[in-house]
């Protein structure tokens, strides 16, 4: 018994079962496994890219241009406030100025039922209308962006050496790599109402996307620029429309009287966002993924064998076709099919014994 059951050799045998039900089950299982595997690979690759090909980025902006506001010449020091922070900067197009004198203590007038509030006087007046600075559409914005993919130790900048600095103005068709942008061209792409934007302010996103195939020449790793209307969800809003902020400048006269100038500035807020992905072929992950896919497809065969051997009416007939015990003599080969479950299991193997 030990010799016949332990000292054996097993090899595979293929049996074609013509059954609609089993065939459908087999294909459905294979499809489900393939779908699961593809989804798994996609999520794995995405997580891998986010974890390992995360982009490191630095952004510096410079704005140039002159304009007029209330007959006052405005330059960068006047309309860019506050300075750039984390790739964000404000370009003021309109500003209301209020001159306040002294600090007063609130006094109530009981006859009319009012009280004076302690604070700077006079109070802010939103009814003041000032003609906005129309020249802002001709301002230029230079964006200096350097990026690095730490996984591959690849560093790139957004100003290729082939660009002539003095002739560089961004055009998405003829000069798409130039990082100097005219404000009016950006507004044309975001479909902003220029007049309303100058009066009430707004928000614009400048997107820099780096999609790099590092199997190619690294010089082909170049940025793509696009622009987004960030305040679009609030266009129909009756409150908080546009963008404005307040800041104050304080000073004293010779006699010690304290004054402040309050500025309510309407501005276009620009936000520069940098994203990117770098890819490079790697043999080991590719082989692992392919082998895992091929192995997973075989699960359909295992499930169908379980159904055929245990669940269908013709299970015994299938066993007789699938499992054969072949006895071999020294000079001749004798094939014999035994019915039953002697020494072999439902693994789809053929049990071969040798007689001497």
UniProtKB/TrEMBL annotation:
GO molecular-function term, one example from the UniProt record: extracellularly ATP-gated monoatomic cation channel activity
Catalysed reactions, semicolon-separated: Ca(2+)(in) = Ca(2+)(out)
Transmembrane feature ranges: 290-312
Protein name: P2X purinoceptor
Domain of life: Eukaryota
Entry keyword set: Cell membrane, Disulfide bond, Glycoprotein, Ion channel, Ion transport, Ligand-gated ion channel, Membrane, Receptor, Transmembrane, Transmembrane helix, Transport
Family: Belongs to the P2X receptor family.
Chief place of localization: membrane
Gene Ontology biological process terms in this record: calcium ion transmembrane transport; response to ATP
Cell compartment(s), UniProt: Cell membrane; Membrane
Annotated membrane topology: Multi-pass membrane protein
Purpose of the protein: Receptor for ATP that acts as a ligand-gated ion channel.
GO cellular component terms, semicolon-separated: plasma membrane; postsynapse
